[in-house]
Amino acid sequence: MLTREEDIDAHALRRQGWTISAIARHLGRDRKTIRAYLNDERVAGERKPAGDDPFEPYFDYVRARLTEDPHLWAMTLFDEVVGLGYDRSYPTFTRQIRTRELRPHCEPCSATKGRANAPIEHPPGEETQWDWLELPDPPAAWGWGKNAHLLVGALAHSSKWRGHLAASEQQPHLIAGLDAVTRKLGGLTRKWRFDRMTTVCHPESGKVTATFAAVAKHYGVSVAICPPRRGNRKGVVEKSNHTAAQRWWRTLPDDITIEEAQASLDRFCELRGDARLRPSAVDGRASVLTVAEREPLTPVPTSPFPATISEERTVSAQALVAWRGNFYSVPPELARAQVVVSQRLGEQHIDIVTTSGIVIARHELAPDGAGVMVRDHGHVIALEQLVLAGHDTSRPHRRKERIPPGPAARAAAEQLRARNDATDTAISDDVVIDLSKYDRAATGRNTLT
Asked: CA-based diameter of the chain, in Å?
């Protein structure tokens, strides 16, 4: 087999008048090989098969099956051709499918990568893109299970983005995240764009749900739903998700609290995300923060949409419930019990409810992450009484200590002794020993009959 370089040299030397023998001696090849390449009987870089191609008889069948079903497993197809007499290995079979490119392209199921796409214009202040990002293996102290959830919002024009950590993707957590991220971005765009998440729209039709329509009206934005299977339409926030997962979450330590993690994300966005350079019509290239500051954003409403967030908590042994980096008291009878903490967005208090729905405590809301302990005076007194009632202040006993019987034990012992003496006297009065019976018995034994 000649390489492409040798094939080029052979054809050039032939045009210069060299004989086939001279070319073969020059290249160190056989004359028959040189003749075959000069006559275009062989192609440079492709080795001539030693024998008949064992795949050729099955070519039409494999192509027809993959045309009918582009997603047919190669192993399933291999089982079929083996039943038809194919005697080569599975790796050889799959290599033939790849080299011959027999599996057709399925456009509806293909990813966006590799497709032709057109640039999408994002005017300043036009659109904010939203998406949930699942973050695996959160710290165990958070109590969030296998995944944490990060709501990411990105300004489509400037690429400025912020995130909000949440325990779940339910609608109240979505609304809380929308409000928090919007305030961090600096204001509202004219439109919010989502994929087909069930908390925003009906996935089949793309119509906005009645509950989320009220949210959109509260903030004064229109809602845009991405068409199905159009991942490029939300490319700005998708790239932000990738950055959050690989540059921030990947290096997050295990001993960090939820509030510390949220503060860490905010710092990362300010120091790293906002410092990226972006094309700018004014400056040519400017930082994300500079471009974002020029966007005409609408002020956020003074109060958030009044959604209610509820999460389960376990009461500690000190009758305290942890919530957003602070601790709130409950009656001491509920120590180690399960309760539900509810907070209505915009209100400055939280309610602690039993699993049966009874409100057992209401506290003024402390700033998130302050680490303060908010305790009701009645709860403090009840806890102290409960603890003192079950606490013994007497001196513990030593292992080697002389403790003789006390007055109560000695009085009880005297009663037992008097009772035993009376019993012995009664027995002695009742027993009478008559020796005449023994004498008659002995006399009878000594008499000979």
From this structure: 165
3-class SS of residue 339: strand
Q: How far is the C-alpha of 185 from the C-alpha of 434, rounded, in Å?
A: 119
- Residues 6+ positions from 253 with CB-CB distance below 8 Å: none
CATH architecture of 127-293: 2-Layer Sandwich (3.30)
- Per-domain boundaries in the chain: 4-99, 127-293, 308-389
Q: Report the candidate in 39, 93, 87 with the shortest Cα–Cα distance to residue 66.
A: 93
Q: Write down the pTM of the prediction.
A: 0.66
CA distance to 148, 372, 396, per residue, from 321 (Å): 21, 12, 34
pLDDT at 387: 63
SS (H, E, C) 66-116: HHHCCCCCHHHHHHHHHHCCCCCCHHHHHHHHHHCCCCCCCCCCCCCCCCC
Which 3 state secondary structure label does DSSP give 243?
A: helix
Which of the two residues, 255 and 445, has the higher pLDDT score?
Answer: 255
In this prediction, residue 40 carries a pLDDT of 85
Q: What is the pLDDT of residues 246-294, one digit of tens each?
A: 999 999 999 999 999 999 999 999 999 999 998 877 777 899 999 999 9
The CATH topology of domain 308-389 is OB fold (Dihydrolipoamide Acetyltransferase, E2P) (2.40.50)
